[in-house]
Structures are given as structure tokens and as C-alpha cells.
Write a structure and sequence with these properties.
By secondary structure, this protein is of the alpha+beta class. The protein has helices at 28-34, 70-78, and strands at 3-9, 15-21, 56-59, 86-88, 101-105. The chain contains two helices and five strands, in the order E-E-H-E-H-E-E.
Length: 110
């Protein structure tokens, strides 16, 4: 089992350094949910299908992430609080290359 470290800043501005397994086919949204870094029902509402943007986050480290899919691009085009470094957490799969990744959870869309 190989874990990586990810730094996640929650919506209250509190920073958390968490271990994320690379051998469980998880994505960033699932890691946030497993550590309960966002209130229940406020992240991953669509179940990770890139259909709601509730897991939007801002990537603040210099990691090379895979290109955004058409579905992710379309969802971010309709989302609130989108920045140039916005990604949907459900579309960022945990791999060893993401060790040291730093993200900030986007504000909850109201």
C-alpha cells in the first residue's frame, strides 16, 4: 500500500495534511469526504459524475494534472467561483505523481 500526502484547505480556511492511498482508485473528492473536511451533503452531491461542481477546488501547487475532460470543462463553465486553477475533485484521481498536492476547497455554491 502506497500513500501520498495531500494538503487540503477546507472552506473555513483550516489546512489539513492527509494521507491518500494510491492503490484504491480514489479521487480527491472521495479523500475530502473520507476525512470529513466538508459538511455532509455539501461535497460530491452527484456522486463523482462531474455533474454538480460541489467538489470544485483550486489547485495551488505546481503539479501537472491530466487535462480536463469535456464533461469537467462543461461543468466548470456553469459553476460559480471558478478560477483559472479550478478543478473538480471527482476528476482528480489519486496517483503517486500527486504526492505533495495542495488544494483549497472552493466556497459552497448557494
Amino acid at each position: 500500500m502506497s500513500d501520498i500526502k495531500i494538503k487540503i484547505t477546507d472552506r473555513e480556511g483550516v489546512s489539513h495534511e492527509v494521507d491518500a492511498p494510491t492503490d484504491m482508485n480514489m479521487n480527491l473528492m472521495e479523500v475530502v469526504r473520507s476525512y470529513e473536511l466538508a459538511p455532509e451533503g455539501t461535497i460530491g452531491i452527484c456522486g463523482g459524475m462531474a455533474m454538480c461542481a460541489s467538489c470544485q477546488c483550486y489547485v495551488t501547487s505546481d503539479h501537472a494534472l491530466p487535462e480536463k475532460s469535456d464533461d469537467e470543462e462543461a461543468m466548470l463553465a456553469e459553476a460559480f467561483n471558478v478560477e483559472e486553477n479550478s478543478r473538480l475533485g471527482c476528476q482528480v484521481h489519486i496517483t503517486e505523481a500527486l504526492d505533495g498536492l495542495e488544494v483549497v476547497l472552493a466556497p459552497e455554491e448557494l
